[in-house]
Structure of Osmotically inducible protein OsmC:
Amino acid sequence: MTGTSLPVGDGDGAWDPEKLYAAALATCLHQAVVLAATTGDLDTSGSAVRARVTLNHENAQDYSIDAKLSITLPNVPGDRRADLLDQAVRHCPLVNGWSVDLED
């Protein structure tokens, strides 16, 4: 749209691009875990995904992004967690390529 200004965040706790991307990563991974768990009859209740995204300024025009994800799967047996996570990461297009830590 030409001639239209969009509001810019003013730092009052509003969502910035990093927070939006982190929310998308966490949601995508969580849904992929829930879907993958249905094939193995695993209980994902109480599971949680955390994502932290950092936007790095390389110079005035170049940026890079870094993401750190972690997941807790309290009701999935310990010996099945890594396989479930691997399967979910393969099916989550946003997360594929980022490392995900399994928390106890």
About this structure: The CA atoms of residues 29 and 92 lie 6 Å apart. The longest strand covers residues 48-57.
